[in-house]
Every structure is written in structure tokens, then in C-alpha cells.
Structure to design on (782 residues):
């Protein structure tokens, strides 16, 4: 039955709230889940009814030999219809996407307002060559727990449906489904006797829920209002309905043992310890209470959690054999290092879920095993607590730091090879396509007994580097390594709808440089970094190659090889041009520091040269902000608009809470605890937040030059934090629509104005051999 709206403006009595929450369920009667019907819905929403009507979608069994998903492309000449067959809605959708990609040059990528979707208009549809494709690995997994904060924190159903369509077309059959779980937790804790305020004050704010769910923090950005909790639960029901109709197996939340402080009041004799401090937060927001898995209350509470989740979201459908994710020690060391304790702790998680769902699969992110604590003996002991075959381990960043090879294929447990790639949603075009193209097929070559059962992508944030995720998702179907050069060549043709020599050359250059990076943790420039007097080593950033690729991409739009108004072209042009501007700005920042250092060494107090460079830096930031404002995918205003219009956000207090969450996450991440970790190159953010910080830095450097005092970083940060906090707490919003300026003309101007730098600035660089030139340097290269 539907949940009654919660009363506004008066506290609810705990007893009546408990009764209401426990009596209601958001689950709807199971709808028909015919695979062909669900796949047709995807095709119609993405490619339009006209194309969907010309497709004959049919259901076939899974591959009889492997049991894996399969799809077929065919043509019925009698009806002149393209025939696509598959064993599930996902498999049929993947077949639709291959057909559209091969015969209509389709590219379905992320982009605000569907600007990442492009395909040829052809009628009638061309007949395909008959082909059958069988998935190389059983599972195709998607998302990181953090993705629900960095990307999807404020999505409504319309945005979620677009993402589910993207997942289906890209063959994902094992998606993480973590939205709306706070209602389940609320029901559980109210049932055991906590007050409503004790429960809601435990929850972090919407943008920080992933880290509260993993036990890293609590309460920051909260408390959550009841409207949010209920709205997200309604959203989760829609998400689960759509996933199951498509034949996906959602990965639901599990019970790891992180609990509210009030549980100590409810069970004063229970063994409740605290997690280790995390992220430089103080004890108000971290050291989260942890119910020891060996405590007698653990099984009862965990079992009840799974029952409530089933009753809330699973009414009217088969809830057997579900997958559940639980992370007990994410970026934290267990306080008890005894091997028997480690085995018992993991066993407790498994036992609770299997009590309610006898065929459950326990899914766990292996990220914790990167910590020094986790020796081979410790990992083996921990994993021994779960029967082999009932656990699915996510080797979270196998593309860079694989753990399957370090821990003997996780000692017999099945695992999924994942590409993590992105941290915090930080901006930049980067990645290692060769590792992705060779990684999954290479596992069995390196270790024939490896227990790999899937591939996946686990970025902390999506909505960036679409070429990378196009290849990652494709690897689930590939039985052999893919030629990365051939892949990006075809990618360029599909993405822009033309065989542009300049664009292909640009992408091949990027493939061999910025998409062949060793490590994706690197920050690509200094625009988003909190200013400092020391210069980090940025010798591997391929700045010169990026500038040349930009020249080629600009050329493709200027000489008629490509349509300069297409969404994918504009997106990539702005993305690449902003990255080049990062390098330009970083060169200028390095020059400023070097000039001040040289002047101080000479005893000179003349600020003229340094002031000139400082003015050039501010001009670069202003131009960068203008560039970013020409494409909807690079707008601060879009992120903020998503926040203030998120489901069940209506009152002034709710709007203020969402706005603070959205701003704080991408800047201070707390009270400066993890500042700039989730930074973005966005129009509005560069101009209103980063540029003023750099202006303060430049002013301080010039003052120190004239006074002869050394730069005091700590004192500078102390002055900076109040300014940053003021921006976080301000109700100011920013445009969520593009400026109207032409991205191509803007990029052409930037190349002329900044990349082809003035002779004076070049001369200053030539006279300053100690300046870090970013592996060649954009300015020096031109």
C-alpha cells in the first residue's frame, strides 16, 4: 500500500511512525517482464519509435554451452525487418546497440540533454550480416558505492531511466542498486527502539551517503529529512522494477555492522566498538559505531535488515538468489587482527543474508585489500569465512593494481575484473585503453585456473571519458584482446558520424599519449588545486600531445570534415580544450613561482614581471570559464539544479540542504578535510571559486616579494578557508544553460591567444630553465 505523506511542521510520535513505516511497502505488483518488450522500450527511448518499429526483437535461450548471455543479428527478407535475438532484455539491447553502431554509426554516451547520443538517419534500415555473439564472461558489473554520491546523488526517475537504458545497451547485467536504502535502515532502527531524530541524525547528507553506508563517516551534511528518505525509496522501487524487467540482477545493500550511536543505549552490554578515524574528520563525524560481528545481536539485526528490505522492495516478485554488497572495513583496519576473528567477521555477514535468502550471493569490493594490514594470510583468513562459490569479489581497480594475481585468484572465490579509472569525478581526458583492451582476456592467459567470472567498471564517478567506458563495457563480450588503435579509429567515426582524417589523427594521438597513462590518480593541472608555493612534478602529462590533438580536432570542425554543431563533437572539443588550458595555466603558475624566486634571490622587490604573469593567469581562468560555459555537460549550474530539484525537495530548508551538499562535495568535502578531492572543471566553478583563490595566492606572493618574507602556506590556508566556507554556504546558484557562445570559435581563439603564446611569455620561459614545463610544456611547444 502507498505510504502516506509525512506531516509537515510537527514532530511525529515515534510509535505511530514505526507502525506506519513497517506497515507500508513501496513494492508494486510485478509487471510483465518480457525481454523483447523491455528491450523495445530501450530502443524506442534512445533511438526513437521510427527505428524501434523496424526491429523484430525475439527471445532465445542463453548459450547452451557456457550459460552466458547471447544475441544474434539477422534479417527477415520477407518482411524487410532487422531481426535481433537475445536471451534477456539486456542481451537484446546489446544486440540493438551493436546493430546501430555497425550500420548506423550510433554512439550512445553520457551527455546532458542527450548530447552524447548520435546516429545516422537511414530508412529503410540496412540489412545486417548474420552474426551470433556470446558473452565472454558471465557478469558485466557497473558502478562503485561512491558513484551514488559523486554522480547520481540528486537524480530523478527520468535521469535514472536514461542511465538504465545506457546500461542495457552496453550489456550490463549486474548493476549496483544502492538508492533508497535509508528507509530500510530507518525501519530497522525505529523497530529496536531508537527515536526518529536519533536515526535521521545518524544519516549523512545526500551527497555523502556512500561513505556513511560504508562506515567511514556519519551525520556530515545531514540530517536527512523524511521527504528525502521516502522519495529515494520510491525511486529505488522504480529502479529495481526496470532492472529486473531487463533481466539485470541488481546488487542490493547488505548489513556490514555500522550502526547509530543510539544502539549503545538500546543494547548497553553489546560489543560495539568504533571504526578508525577517516578522512581527517573529527569524532563527531567519524569513528562510527561498529557492532562486532561476533556479538549475539549481529545476526538478529542483520537478518531483520534483509527481511525489511525484502518486504519493502520485493513484494509481488521472486526475491530468491539476490546479490548483496557489504563492505565492513573500507579504508579501515580491523581492530582485531586474529585470523579466527577475521574469518568470523566475514562469516557473520554471509550467514545473515543466507538466512533470509538461501541462494544469496555476497558481493564485496576488494578495495580494502590494498591496505598494508591485509597480508596474504589475513586476506585468506577473511575470505575463508564464506563458502566458495557464494561470494563475488570486485577486483575494483584491476586495470592498474590487480589483486587477483597478488592473492591467488582470491583463494578460489569468483571475482570480477573491474576498471576503476576515476577518483572523485575529477576532470580530465585520460586512462589506459591498452590495459582495458588486453586485461580481461589476459587473466586466463596469465593464470589458467583464475576464477574470473566477469568484467565491470567501478569509477567513483561516471559522466566522463566516454571512450574509456565504451571499451570497458565491450570487453564483457570479447574473447580475445582488442586492438586499441582500431577501436578508437572506429570510435571517432561513430561518435562524429564521419570519417574525418583530422579527428582520427587526433584520437590516435590521444590513444598513444593521454589514453596510455600509467596511473589515473594524477591531477592534470593546477586550476582546481588549492594554490601552494611548491610545484608538484607533472612531467608525464603529455601536454604537448594534448595541444596537437586539440589543433587537429579544431581543424576537423573548421574545414568541414565534421559537423561543428553536433553534441559529441562540441563535448569533446570543450573537454580537450579545457585540458590544454589546464596545462597552459600550470605553466603560467610555474613561471610565476620561478620569477618570484629569482627576484627574491637577487634582492629585487620589483613586482612588475610577476604581476604581468599573474594577470595572464587570471585571463586564462576567465577564458577557461567562458569555454566551459559553452557546453551543458560542463556547467556547475547543472549539478546545482539537479540538487535543488531532486525528488521531494520543496521546502526552503530542503533546498538549502541539497545546495550545501552539492557545493561542499566538489570543494571542501567536509570542513576542508578532503578538499578538492572531487574538484571539477565546470563553467561557473572556475570563475567563482578557483579564480578568487588564485587571486588571493598571487596577491600574497607579491606582498611577500615586496616585504622579503617567505611564503607561509599555513597562514595562507588559514585565510583561504573562510572564503571557501562562505562559497559553500552561499545560496548563490549559477546558470544551468549554456552561454550561447560557439565552442569551436571559442576553442580557436584560445589556441591563438594562449597555446600560441605571446613572444614575451615565451621569452620568459626560455630565460627560466628551472621552470617545470609539463613534459615539454604547452607554451614552450608552440
Amino acid at each position: 500500500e502507498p505510504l502516506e505523506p509525512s506531516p509537515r511542521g510537527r514532530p511525529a510520535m515515534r510509535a505511530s511512525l514505526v507502525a506506519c513505516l513497517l506497515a507500508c511497502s513501496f513494492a508494486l505488483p510485478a509487471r510483465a517482464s518480457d525481454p523483447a518488450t523491455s528491450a523495445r522500450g530501450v530502443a524506442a527511448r534512445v533511438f526513437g519509435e521510427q527505428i524501434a518499429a523496424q526491429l523484430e526483437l525475439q527471445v532465445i535461450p542463453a548459450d547452451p554451452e557456457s550459460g552466458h548471455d547471447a544475441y544474434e543479428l539477422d534479417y527477415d527478407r520477407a518482411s524487410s525487418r532487422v531481426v535481433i535475438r537475445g536471451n534477456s532484455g539486456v542481451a537484446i539491447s546489446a544486440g540493438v546497440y551493436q546493430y546501430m553502431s555497425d550500420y548506423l554509426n550510433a554512439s550512445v554516451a553520457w551527455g546532458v540533454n542527450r548530447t552524447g547520443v548520435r546516429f545516422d538517419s537511414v530508412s529503410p534500415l540496412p540489412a545486417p550480416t548474420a552474426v551470433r555473439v556470446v558473452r565472454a564472461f558471465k557478469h558485466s558489473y557497473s558502478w562503485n558505492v561512491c558513484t551514488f554520491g559523486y554522480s547520481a546523488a540528486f537524480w530523478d526517475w527520468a535521469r535514472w531511466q536514461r542511465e538504465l537504458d545506457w546500461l542495457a545497451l552496453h550489456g550490463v547485467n549486474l548493476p549496483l542498486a544502492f538508492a533508497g536504502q535509508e528507509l530500510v535502515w530507518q525501519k530497522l532502527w525505529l523497530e529496536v527502539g531508537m527515536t526518529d531524530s536519533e536515526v535521521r541524525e545518524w544519516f549523512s547528507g545526500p551527497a555523502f551517503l556512500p561513505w556513511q553506508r560504508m562506515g567511514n563517516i556519519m551525520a556530515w551534511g545531514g540530517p536527512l529529512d523524511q521527504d528525502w528518505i521516502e522519495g529515494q525509496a520510491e525511486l529505488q522501487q522504480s529502479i529495481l522494477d526496470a532492472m529486473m524487467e531487463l533481466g539485470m540482477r541488481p546488487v542490493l545493500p547488505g548489513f556490514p555492522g555500522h550502526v547509530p550511536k543510539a544502539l549503545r543505549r538500546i543494547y548497553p552490554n553489546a560489543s560495539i566498538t568504533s571504526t578508525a578515524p577517516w578522512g581527517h574528520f573529527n569524532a563527531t563525524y567519524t569513528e562510527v559505531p561498529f557492532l562486532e560481528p561476533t556479538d549475539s545481536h549481529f545476526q538478529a539485526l542483520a537478518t531483520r535488515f534483509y527481511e525489511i528490505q525484502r518486504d519493502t522492495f520485493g513484494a509481488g516478485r521472486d526475491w530468491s538468489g539476490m546479490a548483496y554488497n557489504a563492505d565492513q572495513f573500507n579504508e579501515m583496519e580491523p581492530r582485531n587482527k586474529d585470523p579466527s576473528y577475521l574469518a568470523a567477521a566475514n562469516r557473520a555477514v554471509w550467514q545473515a543474508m543466507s538466512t533470509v535468502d538461501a541462494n544469496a550471493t555476497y558481493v564485496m569490493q576488494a578495495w580494502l585489500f590494498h591496505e598494508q594490514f591485509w597480508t596474504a594470510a589475513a586476506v585468506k583468513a577473511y575470505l575463508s569465512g564464506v563458502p566458495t562459490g557464494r561470494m563475488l569479489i570486485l577486483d575494483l581497480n584491476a586495470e592498474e593494481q590487480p589483486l587477483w594475481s597478488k592473492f591467488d585468484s582470491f583463494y578460489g572465490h569468483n571475482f570480477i575484473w573491474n576498471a576503476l579509472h576515476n577518483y572523485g569525478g575529477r576532470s580530465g581526458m585520460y586512462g589506459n585503453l591498452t590495459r582495458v583492451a588486453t586485461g580481461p582476456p589476459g587473466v586466463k592467459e596469465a593464470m589458467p585456473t583464475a576464477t574470473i567470472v566477469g568484467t565491470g567498471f567501478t569509477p567513483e564517478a561516471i559522466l566522463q571519458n566516454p571512450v574509456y567506458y565504451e571499451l570497458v563495457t565491450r570487453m564483457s563480450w570479447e574473447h580475445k584482446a582488442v586492438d586499441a588503435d582500431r577501436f578508437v579509429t572506429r570510435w571517432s567515426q561513430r561518435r562524429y558520424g564521419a570519417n574525418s582524417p583530422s579527428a582520427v589523427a587526433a584520437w590516435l594521438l590521444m590513444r598513444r599519449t593521454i589514453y596510455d597513462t600509467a596511473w589515473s590518480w594524477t591531477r592534470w593541472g593546477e586550476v582546481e588545486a588549492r594554490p601552494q608555493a611548491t610545484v608538484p612534478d607533472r612531467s608525464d602529462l603529455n601536454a604537448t600531445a594534448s595541444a596537437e590533438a586539440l589543433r587537429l580536432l579544431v581543424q576537423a570542425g573548421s574545414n568541414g570534415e565534421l559537423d561543428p554543431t553536433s553534441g559529441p563533437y562540441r563535448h569533446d572539443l570543450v573537454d580537450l580544450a579545457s585540458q590544454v588550458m589546464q596545462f597552459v595555466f600550470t605553466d603560467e603558475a610555474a613561471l610565476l613561482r620561478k620569477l618570484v624566486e629569482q627576484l627574491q634571490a637577487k634582492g629585487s622587490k620589483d613586482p612588475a614581471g610577476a604581476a604581468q604573469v599573474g594577470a595572464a593567469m587570471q585571463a586564462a581562468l576567465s577564458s577557461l570559464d567562458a569555454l566551459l560555459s559553452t557546453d551543458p555537460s560542463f556547467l556547475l549550474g547543472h549539478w546545482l539544479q539537479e540538487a535543488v530539484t531532486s525528488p521531494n525537495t520543496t521546502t526552503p530548508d530542503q533546498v538549502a540542504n541539497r545546495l550545501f551538499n552539492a557545493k561542499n562535495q566538489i570543494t571542501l568535502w567536509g570542513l576542508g578535510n578532503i578538499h578538492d578531492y572531487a574538484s571539477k572543471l565546470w563553467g561557473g566553478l572556475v570563475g567563482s571559486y578557483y579564480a578568487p583563490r588564485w587571486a588571493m595566492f598571487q596577491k600574497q606572493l607579491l606582498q611577500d616579494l615586496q616585504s622579503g618574507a617567505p611564503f607561509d602556506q599555513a597562514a595562507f590556508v588559514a585565510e583561504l578557508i573562510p572564503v571557501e566556507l562562505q562559497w559553500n554556504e552561499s545560496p548563490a546558484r549559477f546558470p544551468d544553460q549554456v552561454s550561447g557562445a560557439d565552442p569551436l570559435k571559442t576553442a580557436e581563439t584560445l589556441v591563438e591567444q594562449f597555446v600560441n603564446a605571446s613572444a614575451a611569455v615565451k621569452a620568459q620561459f626560455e630565460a627560466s630553465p628551472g621552470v617545470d614545463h609539463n613534459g615539454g610544456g604547452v607554451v614552450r611547444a608552440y
The radius of gyration is 27 Å.
